[in-house]
Amino acid sequence: MSLTSATLLVSAVLCTALVFAATVWLWPRLARRSGRAVLGRIGLILTVQVLLFASVGLTANRSFLLYGSWSELLGRKSAPALLSQDSGDSVVKVLGRQRPKVPGNGAPRLSGEIEKVMVQGRLSKVATPAYVYLPPEYFQKGNEKRTFPATVVLTGFPGMAENLLEKLPYPKTAWTQAKQKKMQPMILVMMRPTVEPTRNTQCVDVPGGPASETFFATDLPQALSGTYRIAASPRGWGIMGDSTGGYCALKVALEHPESYAAGVGLSADYKPELDKYSGDLFHGDKDAEKRADLLWSLDHLPQGNSSFLVSTSLQGEENYQPTQKFIEKVKAPARVSSITLDHGGHNFVTWGREIPPSLEWLSGRLSAE
Asked: How many Cβ atoms are within 10 Å of 50's Cβ, its own excluded?
């Protein structure tokens, strides 16, 4: 049964209620001073607490879509199945299709379409899933040869790509913005910022693997441009994300202007967080560790012809000061814009306010040519 299954959650809540009722009913019988009565009381109390904790945890996971499977929750690694071991190219395999949650009759030419795909990188040898939103214009008559700009959209960590469809409805927002002529039709590639679900790889090429930076910087644009009608030049590609995904977006756009023309970091970190979830990302390579610090990179590495958008809040965010430093350090030919809210926490509500203007900003800096 899926970790995010409604059936599992309802079952946990019902079991909690039943065991609690049984505890109330049996408590007078267990009020004796015998060893069996004491053990019975302890057992019922512990059972209620465990079930209550499980119900709360399942509710939170279903609300925030943090973990998609039991293996992820338990930290078990599973080797991804390679799509093609012989081909020298990146590979994209379509796993399913669904309709975006937008007004209309559901026809792709009116509502667009979302494809769930598995992407295997040529250089990184990474295979990881993504959701690709294709706007209605992609399917409309007369546009058979038209190319579109694309933006890679990344969640935080932990987090599931489904958050970008539900909690942060990127397809619906892009569809609405295009209808209102606030942005050009754009393909969205929605995924996690990690290529190993149990580990926070933070777009770093870890010595010995996984090659997360190589995947996002090189393999992913190559694979998608070879599958969909996406503009092949850097001007056709943007990358954005929130929290850890925001750090990845800024890092990849900063270090790879040959692949991405623009990067957006919503409530972004500016250097990788090293903890039990990341593991050892650098294996003693101090140069790689310095380069992963975006503020250090802005001071010491050449800045390309890239555009950046960063967001923060005067109250509620911890990244206000680092964001100001990032803005100060961006120099020509690079350019930087910012969104500063009066107040807003590190959460979906804040990012939901920032996504529409961010997509509009990206649209003005990307080209389908």
From this structure: 13
Reading the block at residue 360, the tokens are 């509009």
Could you tell me the two tokens for 319?
């990244």
Q: What is the mean pLDDT of residues 319-323?
A: 95
C-alpha span between 72 and 159 (Å, rounded): 11
CA atoms within 13 A of residue 124's CA, in its CB half-sphere: 30
CB 198 within 8 A of CB 72: yes
Owner of token pair 């990184």: 124
Local confidence band at 2 (pLDDT 50, 70, 90 cut-offs): low
Q: Is 166 helix (H, G, I), strand (E, B) or coil?
A: coil
Task: Label each residue of 74-93 as H, E or C.
Answer: CCCCCCCCCCCCCCCCCEEE
Q: Tell me the CA distances in angstroms from 217 to 141, 183, 193, 202, one per residue in order.
A: 33, 25, 12, 13
pLDDT at 19 over 80: no
Question: How far apart are the C-alpha atoms of 217 and 116, rounded to whole Å?
Answer: 20
Residue 351, CA distances (Å) to 52, 63, 151, 273 in order = 30, 16, 17, 21
pLDDT in tens, 58-115: 565 555 555 555 555 555 554 444 455 454 566 899 999 999 999 877 899 999 999 9
- The total of other beta-carbon atoms located within 10 Å of residue 203's CB is 27
Q: What is the helix, strand, coil percentage profile of the chain, to 5?
A: 40, 20, 40
- Sign for the CA dihedral angle at 7, 165, 319, 275 comes to positive
Mean pLDDT, all residues of the chain? 86
Give residues with Cβ within 8 angstroms of 226, minimum separation 6: 89, 90, 92
CA atoms 291, 297, 301, 302: torsion sign: positive
